[in-house]
Design brief:
Layout (H helix, E strand, L loop, with lengths): L21 H18 L25 E6 L5 H11 L4 E5 H11 L1 H9 L3 E5 L6 H16 L3 E6 L17 H8 L2 E6 L18 H8 L8 E5 H8 L7 H4 L5 E7 L5 H16 L4 E5 L8 H4 L4 H21 L5
Parallel strand pairs: 1-4, 1-5, 2-3, 3-4, 6-7, 7-8
Helix pairs in contact: 1-2, 3-4, 4-5, 5-6, 10-12
Length: 330
């Protein structure tokens, strides 16, 4: 429940706004103001009382949270982690999936108790992929807001559009609108910084080169060499909440025979793995199809389009790291 290793050292001052995108500098300024308010005592507040000073004429409370909306690669997670670093605890930062996993591990009431004393809860990659998550998260965040917890979240989807294209969102509009009401939305425009002005992704290696390069990986014992189809099969037998644990002591990943992923469940598991690898700054060397050909046009046109595009963006960035950091085969 803390920022992943890639974002250990980020701060508002290390975020470099694109001068052609004013919304980026505006988002930094707004988040700095939000952090300042929390540092000045605007964090967790006592639970509501029957009688409060000021009576019915008291000023309405400030918005409970900030919602960073924008395309992949505009630095939303950088800014979310910067906010987390700028605010004193108790506080937590997790992905949306990790939050739902926490409820699964602790139970709903215990999760509410564990988080109700927080000053700030940051939620990265906010997604609503099924009706159960919609009701669960809506109820959880409502209780945390009642307890005075401030919220911050990132997503590629506006809060009142969450779930569209993935389930019958109209049937759960009350819960979705309840979630939206907790947040002030900040739109962050821009191009994917991971590839802005950089050369094209490196071409896939040959199978034999992947094996040879794995022997020269940084920290040889931390090089994971696998056939890509076997990786996908293994992911199906491990809960996504454990994908981070799979990467413990792994310093470089080598995949032979990358093939297009045509099954949606498999593709979503790969998205989670790519996120955890990216968090840990793991370089990738692979043979087979290039990463920008992982998902079909049909899949990229569906409800999970933004997840797949984010995964491709991150895998290409890690492949570029692999080309630069792993010595060539000899």
């Amino acid at each position: 429940m803390v920022p992943p290793p890639r974002f250990d050292g980020v701060r508002f001052g290390t975020y470099i706004p694109d001068p052609t995108q004013p919304s980026q500098a505006a988002a930094v300024q707004r988040l700095e103001q939000f952090a300042a308010a929390l540092n000045n005592g605007g964090g967790a507040e006592p639970k509501r009382r029957w009688f409060r000073r000021g009576g019915s004429g008291a000023a309405a409370p400030a918005q409970s949270g900030i919602y960073l909306d924008g395309g992949y690669g505009v630095g939303k997670t950088h800014l979310l982690a910067s906010l987390w670093h700028a605010v004193p605890g108790p506080k937590s930062l997790c992905t949306f999936v990790e939050l739902t996993n926490l409820v699964g591990a602790l139970g709903f009431q215990e999760t509410v108790r564990a988080l109700s004393g927080h000053r700030l809860l940051c939620i990265d990659e906010f997604e609503l992929d099924d009706p159960g998550d919609t009701v669960l998260v809506s109820t959880l965040l409502g209780k945390l807001v009642d307890a005075g917890v401030k919220l911050a979240a990132t997503s590629n989807t506006l809060p009142d559009k969450l779930g569209e294209g993935r389930f019958a969102a109209i049937d759960f509009m009350r819960e979705i609108q309840g979630l939206s009401a907790h947040f002030d939305t900040l739109r962050i425009d821009g191009d994917d910084y991971r590839h802005r002005g950089l050369p094209e992704a490196p071409a896939p290696s040959a199978d034999d080169d992947v094996v040879t390069k794995s022997a020269y990986a940084p920290g040889v014992t931390g090089a994971a060499l696998d056939d890509f189809p076997a990786v996908l099969d293994h992911l199906a037998r491990v809960h996504p909440s454990r994908y981070g644990a799979l990467l413990e002591d792994v310093h470089a990943v080598f995949w032979r025979g990358v093939v297009p992923v045509t099954d949606q469940s498999t593709a979503l598991r790969l998205v989670v793995l790519a996120d955890r690898m990216y968090d840990r700054e793991i370089p990738v060397v692979a043979s087979g199809v290039p990463f920008d050909a992982l998902f079909s046009e049909e899949m990229l046109a569906g409800g999970y389009k933004k997840k797949y595009l984010r995964a491709v963006s991150r895998l290409v960035a890690m492949a570029r790291d692999g080309a630069e950091r792993v010595p060539p085969a000899v």
